Structures are given as C-alpha cells and as structure tokens.
Amino acid sequence: MTASTTAPTTGPTTGPTTGPATAGKLAEMASALAADPSDWLWRVRLNPDGRWYERLHQDEDYEVWLISWLPGQSTGLHDHGGSRGAFAVALGELEEDDLGGTRHVGTGQTRAFGPDYIHDVRNTSTAPAVSVHVYSPPLSVMNRYERTDSGLKLLAEERAEQW
Questions:
Q1: Which family does it belong to (predicted)?
Q2: How much is the pLDDT for 10?
Q3: CATH of 19-162, one of 3.40.228.10, 2.60.120.10, 2.60.40.1120, 1.10.10.60
C-alpha cells in the first residue's frame, strides 16, 4: 500500500465517546462518512503500484482510514489484530472473501466484523473504488495469511509503526 504523507488527528464527531465501539456502531460511522464525500474526496489519490490510504482520524478509542483501489488491487488475507471494524464502499465496488464465502460490496454498502475476523478485500471491477474503514480500538497489528490445503498459514505480522 502507498500511504499519504498527511495524517490529521482531527476527525468525525460521530465516534464512540469512551472505550471500544461495537461493530454496529463502527458500521454506522463508516456508512455516514462514506455518504459525505465533501469531507474527503479531495484527499483521494490513485496509485498503480498499490492501494493508497490515509488515516483521517485516530484517538484512543477508534481510527478512520480512507483507501483507494485500482482494478486488481487487494489487501490479501489478513486479520485486524483483535480490533473490531467496518468498511463502507463510497465509490465503485469491492469484493470481500471472509473464508466463508465471497460477496460483492457496492457503493453505499457496509460490512462490519468482530475482533477475530479474517478476510481479503479486492477490487475485481474495471473501475477505481474508494472505501472508508473504521477500527476500534485503533489497529496495533495485522496478521497476513495464506490459504493452504491444511488451513491458514501465518505469513507475516505487521505493526502499526509500519503504516
């Protein structure tokens, strides 16, 4: 992924007030932010070398990321290190594989998940996509996996300081 060099610490006022938020609350936040592109559209960049992302907000309870995807770009199979999360597609369409199946996630649709969730998100369309992601507590680690005949194999652990 390609990170933006700016990372504002101010953000939405719709977030939780104390402690980790529920996946449902995170989905509401992601959906509301995705539905109002006037707050973030000017930030979006497209990068042919990898997904572009920028943290829009971070505090002790949650964080918000904006991600752009060109056709063919993917997260790879990963978890969120024990954080709950949600993402909403603001523009375009994405595909999500959560080990139990694959689903299309189009503009205006939101997916929420708990702390043990593993998935791969990718742009299989022919057009760019933009999504808003919200995590609580903020991500500290993400584990990357590979599917094998005997199950999941841990490939790497990424820590927050690497993003």
A1: Belongs to the cysteine dioxygenase family.
A2: 39
A3: 2.60.120.10
